[in-house]
Specification:
With 341 residues, the chain is an alpha/beta fold. The protein is built from nine helices and 14 strands. Bound molecules: nicotinamide-adenine-dinucleotide and (3R,4R)-3,4-dihydroxy-4-(hydroxymethyl)oxolan-2-one.
């Protein structure tokens, strides 16, 4: 049995709570929730039948015997909460973005190594069902060595009502979405040698940039074009699907709208549909993300139980954050930038 406590019961936490509940069959027990807003903690506890309700992470850790803490708060609270959990010896997961500065991410990664307590980042977009299928096809060797990709997330879905804090972030789209799509670029093509980026602030009633068009040269020579925007006014709006075009020496994998995956290998093409596993608690248009939350939780849980590093470990995510930092610098200085580390 893995006893899980969740810190943060806001907009996105319902997906984590539902995911852990869905994993009950795998031996997960949701035993405690915590939110500094007492009403939100109580509401989550009632909705999910959770006995432990707390307004403070330290109180939760002192009172409960937890095997895993899942932090689903906004980014500025991540470092103190991660430190609290790791110093209490509890394996921890923290939502994206890991932190706003690379130095803070490195400090959390290093603390995890020093105290010998695992830390992972809930980076879920690479777990979207069609991307997982594309990765399995790539790993099978069917399309040969991948050497070019285009990854995009283009939407004008109203994200600001559910997440009003996004309106006031002065660095918006790379920190909020770039973390996902640059992570996907690393997932398929490996580490980045350098990145160039153009950012745009197309919507005038928000504080930050809402569009980023990035070009990555990867260590092994591959190139990716990585795009994310909250200001693409087109229908159908595919929020929150990530699209992918991946080309290799023998063929390609293209993830199109609505989970259609076209695989071309040695001159022959076939189409597969990689639908997310839709559960009754999920709703459109979020279900591909909600399914990826379950997959991310299951992946990290399995790795922690086996004493292994999850694919989305803190050490892995530091490289995505380094790429985001380099993208902001590249856009500002109008040059290609090598990520730190
Ligand atoms: P939110 O503000 O709606 O909820 C956060 C909750 O955390 C609030 O209820 C707040 O009271 C609580 N909180 C803050 N500090 C706390 C502390 N120290 N102790 C206890 N409770 C505390 O935010 P949200 O929209 O749910 O976003 C949370 C995180 O999820 C963000 O990092 C966001 O980027 C991320 N997110 C991820 C995805 C994804 O697909 N991976 C999607 C949306 C949001
Ligand atoms: O904050 C964003 C994320 O991480 O995934 C989708 C989102 O909620 C809005 O685009």
């Amino acid at each position: 049995m893995t006893r899980v406590g969740v810190i943060g019961c806001g907009f996105f936490a319902g997906n984590h709570l539902n995911a852990w509940k869905q994993l009950a069959g795998e031996g997960v027990e949701l035993v405690a929730v915590c939110d500094m807003d007492a009403g939100k903690a109580r509401a989550a506890a009632e909705a999910f039948g959770i006995a432990g309700v707390y307004g403070d992470g330290a109180a939760m850790l002192a009172a409960e015997k937890l095997d895993l803490v899942d932090i689903v708060t906004q980014v500025r609270s991540h470092k103190p909460l991660v430190e609290l959990c790791l110093n209490a010896g509890v394996p921890t997961i923290v939502q994206k973005p890991f932190a706003l500065s690379l130095d803070d991410c490195v400090a959390m990664r290093d603390l995890s190594a020093r105290v010998g307590v695992p830390l992972a980042v809930h980076e879920n977009f690479r777990f979207q069902a069609p991307l997982q299928l594309a990765k399995r096809i790539l790993d099978s060797g069917e399309i040969g060595q991948a050497n070019w990709a285009r990854i995009n997330f283009r939407t004008a879905h109203d994200i600001y009502t559910g997440q009003p804090y996004l309106r006031t972030e002065e660095k918006l789209v790379i920190n909020d979405l770039g973390v996902h799509v640059l992570d996907v670029a690393r997932f398929f093509l490996g580490e980045a040698r350098h990145i160039s980026a153009e950012t745009q602030h197309r919507r005038t009633d928000i504080a930050g940039e809402d569009t980023a068009t990035m070009l990555v040269r990867h260590e092994f020579g591959a190139v990716s074009v990585v795009e994310c925007t909250y200001e693409a006014r087109r229908l159908p709006d595919l929020f929150p699907q990530v699209l992918l075009e991946l080309e290799g020496t023998r063929g390609s994998v293209v993830v199109k709208a609505n989970y259609e995956v076209v695989v071309t290998a040695d001159g022959a093409a076939r189409t597969i549909t990689a639908e997310p596993d839709v559960q009754p608690w999920m709703q459109q248009p979020w279900n591909v993300v909600q399914d990826s939350v379950v997959a991310t939780c299951a992946h990290i849980l399995k790795a922690y139980r086996a004493g292994e590093m999850p694919g989305v470990s803190a050490a892995d995510n530091v490289k995505t954050i380094a790429l985001c930092e380099a993208a902001y610098e590249a856009a500002e200085r109008e040059v290609a930038v090598r990520p730190r580390g």
